[in-house]
Amino acid sequence: SSSSSSSILLYCIPFMFDFVSAIEIGNRLHKTAVLSGLGALVVGVFSGKQFETVCFALGGLSAVCSLWYMADWQFDPLCKYQVAPLGVQMPQVEAKELTIIERKDDSARKVLHTTISAISGLVCLRKALKGDYLKFR
Q: What global pTM score does this model have?
């Protein structure tokens, strides 16, 4: 089985750092959505009433990061790329002047943070309804 991947070598171009920065921001949003969502699930399922505020804060953070990622990065072509470690040494080129970005399938990461954010949101909603924070009349 062979897998095809495409790589782009960015060498000392003015907007190279913008590319890398945008990729890192997307990665941070994804990780924050997943980790805060997991935290909300753990706190929401395994803790008592005294930690409901923590559950709501983590669940809200997860939802905001997930929605922000989906709104801003979902359709951006850069979300398909990750910064690759430099596996080659090139004479006369400093490492800070050279970046390789690789195209990767990001569908699994989108499903992961969307699912975790949705489930943690449901856990928070359930806690809010049980704790009489939200009342529907």
A: 0.75
